[in-house]
Amino acid sequence: MDTGSPAGARTLWELVARRAALSPDAPMLLDERDRRLTFGGFAAAAERVAAGLHGLGVGAGSRVTWQLPTRVETVVVSAALARLGAVQNPVIPVHRDREVGFALRQTDAEFYLSPGDWRGFDFTAMARRLEAPRVLEAYTALPEGDPSSLPPPPEAAEGGQVRWIYYTSGTTSDPKGVLHTDRSLIAGGTCLASALGLGADDIGSIAFPYAHIGGPDYLVTLLLHGFPSLLIERFALPDALDAYRRHGVTTAGGSTAFYSAFLAEQRKLPEGTRLLPSLRLLAGGGAPKPPELYHEVVHELGCALAHGYGMTEAPMITMGSPHDTVEQLAHTEGRPPAAMEIRIVDGEIRLRGPAVCQGYTDPALTAEAFDDEGFFRTGDLGHLRPDGHLVLTGRLKDVIIRKGENISAKEIEELLYRHARIGDAAVIGLPDPARGERVCAVVEQPEGAPALTLAEIVEYLEGAGLMRQKIPEQLEIVEALPRNETLRKVLKHKLRERFAGRPWP
């Protein structure tokens, strides 16, 4: 076993083995039931499971779809598959027949790993309904074997082979299968680890689905810096707070919705009482953060906040650091690592670097996604500042074109977020025969707040200096904005579907 530093590892398994040699007795994974697995124990458990899977026919290149929640066993299974050099297709547990069936067919999966009956849904029955290949229930029948029977681990050169397929959620068409290698996932995790500067004294947390692209991103961070992480199977507050406190979590997060959830709980406590006394850093990505949210987190939760920018196709593009200035942390998404090239073309952010995916399972989509110089087209709009930090200004498809004028939804959302009677907001464009599109604000209000009127919104935005052409012409108040089940991004296509056909003067 290589006892060198984890830095520079070419495959995920090499990273696991190096950390196990350096810190065999240090804790790695903790859970809500107070189970604990060390780095050495993790590597040993993964090899036993790898041997058991190998005995069933799983080997290098075997295609395995797994749909498992955030548990210790899930991380072990994924590492076991990495040890064998299998091609993994992690699927978030919230997906059902349509999405899972599509992934099984397109990846030509040979195995499907099921959680069995989880949260009232029978995943094994679904797999059989979809005529999935060999089905294994990961938490009741996962095989183990003698590690001495295993073939050699993947060689360094294999780190550049496609070993991971992640599906992005489709809105009006089929999901897109994103192709990653061990090296691209290690590059993303290295960026996160470098920016946050966490150490062996920290205790992290994974409260989002481990099947999300952020799963290996965070795993790489643990392996590089040798600190443990608490696994939260389902992020729901206040229920999860006891585990955070009991384990003394020092860094938490996931996305802007996670920050807001912690803030909401903090505001229930008496002034001067900290929600999580051990917490020193919130970090995440997945969706832009309003600058005001940054200041609220720092002031009310009493911790730092470092936000980043990533996507399934490039898990870590930029990342804020606790060492950045307050202005940088509040108003940007951080800076890219040295190996990530960012180019702005007609306002669109384009990427080239080791953390960028190899393309999609559909070659036609791959051809569309990369320009002639090999830069990936993100579909996001933004600009690079002279200090190297990136500012997101919206998405190409999130630009509202009203009477020929381009309007940034994000600009309006950030202003609305500051309103005392708005908990969260999404701004969308709706079809309009006279304007092309009209601006519609969809807002959540805090519990007990008096209902807002459009006139109040117009007056507020005018007072904030927003030009008249950008002010919403329609206001919709909802109990909760629709969000996905991973990093809780707002699903604007759902809002467009809901309100596009509503009669409007």
TrEMBL record:
Pfam families: AMP-binding, AMP-binding_C. Gene3D superfamilies: 3.30.300.30, N-terminal domain of ligase-like (3.40.50.12780). Residues 411-485 form the AMP-binding enzyme C-terminal domain. Residues 17-360 form the AMP-dependent synthetase/ligase domain. GO terms for biological process: fatty acid metabolic process. Signal peptide: none annotated. InterPro entries: AMP-bd_C (IPR025110), AMP-bd_C_sf (IPR045851), AMP-binding_CS (IPR020845), AMP-dep_synth/lig_dom (IPR000873), ANL_N_sf (IPR042099). GO terms for molecular function: medium-chain fatty acid-CoA ligase activity. Keywords: Ligase. This is Cyclohexanecarboxylate-CoA ligase. It comes from Wenjunlia tyrosinilytica.
